[in-house]
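User: quick one, sequence for these tokens?
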């Protein structure tokens, strides 16, 4: 049962990450449209965030126990806080960015970095930590990595399909952003508490 709960949290993490990309596209649309340029900047921002998040997560996984626990709570708080900022102030900020930057490329860069980069970076930092959690329980590192990223990718697919075909057609983007914020708060709190039970986290 603990592993079932753990994998459920990993799936939700994947849903939060990729579903957020579709929400981001809908948030940008009234200000920048939905052209190829918009999607190129959006996808690049998310890939850069995935990359940096994985590096940060790897560092946290190998930090001393007390430092690791502190970093997990800090990163989790930043994830929830930045999602909250996007949910509550995203439209207002995009309006200001649209006025301030006449050139669409610059405006998109600023918008993507301001609203999407930090949430995705912090969410993706938990991937390597989940790998460490499995490895600390006796799963070979290569197998642990394959399981986590395989399960997380299933969550990514579910996030794309659920958001595109169920959520966006029936709910306003603002409501969905609040939903993402609430799910992230619950999911990350549960995941951090579970990661604390890792033998590597319990060491003095």
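Assistant:
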């Amino acid at each position: 049962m603990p592993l079932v709960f753990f994998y459920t949290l990993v799936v939700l993490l994947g849903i939060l990450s990729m579903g957020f990309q579709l929400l981001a596209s809908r948030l940008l649309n009234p200000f920048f449209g939905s052209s190829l340029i918009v999607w190129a900047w959006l996808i690049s921002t998310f890939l850069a965030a995935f990359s940096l998040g994985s590096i940060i997560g790897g560092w946290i996984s190998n930090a001393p126990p007390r430092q690791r626990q502190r970093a997990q709570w800090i990163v989790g708080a930043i994830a929830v806080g930045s999602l909250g900022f996007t949910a509550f102030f995203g439209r207002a900020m995009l309006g200001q960015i649209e006025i301030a930057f006449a050139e669409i490329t610059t405006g998109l860069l600023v918008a993507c970095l301001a609203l999407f980069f930090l949430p995705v970076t912090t969410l993706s930092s938990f991937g390597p930590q989940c790998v460490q959690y499995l490895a600390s329980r006796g799963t070979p590192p290569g197998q642990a990595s394959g399981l986590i990223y395989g399960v997380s990718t299933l969550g990514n697919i579910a996030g794309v399909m659920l958001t595109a075909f169920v959520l966006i057609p029936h709910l306003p983007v603002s409501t969905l952003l609040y939903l993402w914020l609430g799910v992230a708060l619950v999911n990350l709190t549960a995941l951090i508490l579970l990661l604390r039970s890792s033998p590597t986290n319990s060491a003095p």
